[in-house]
Sequence to fold (234 residues):
Amino acid sequence: MPAEFEIRGLKKVYRTGEVEVHALRGIDLDLARGELVVLLGPSGSGKSTFLNIVGGLDTASEGTVLFQGQDLTHARERDLTRYRRDNVGFVFQFYNLLPSLTALENVRLVTDIASSPLDPREALKLVRLEDRMHHFPAQLSGGEQQRVAIARAIAKRPKVLLCDEPTGALDSATGSVVLSAIARANAELGATTAVITHNASIAQMGDRVVHFADGAISRIVAVERKVAPEEISW
Fold:
């Protein structure tokens, strides 16, 4: 498969006065179009910083990130905004739903500004929430709210789906349902998908597992047999 991302020498240094924190220490990684990659490692290992730079939410201190040949590391802010709007769907640990809007209306917020979106109802159907679309967030369980967040992320038909600890606030049974929704979106939309976790069991659902430690990639493992999320032993 062709590379969606080509990442070379990626570094990120945060400075507070005279103190420097090296969040990323020279990351080299290609992400193939349409693959599902699990980013595994403890808190503070650089996973979220890496995802934020790839998603255009943060900028690198050194190195390059190419998306389909486009250099994101030297892009202007308005170009990064366009990149995020047109290409990237984000799913975070906390759902960030508007409480005064129904599930359908929360998803429609994205489709109203996307160039070629899914019908909001189809996005909710993809995550198996077609019977809950007129409910407000307070009427939904945590897992259902997270699935609304996934539906919102995929409703714009993103080329890239970035998920930062999407099951971190959920129990194992609910987490499996949420991971199934992510895997289904990856398979049916073909979005290049990266899932951050510190739970090694989740790694089995990916095509590859990228292990992070101390701001660097310690190893990359190809998964010989992908496991469906409902089969994962948490």
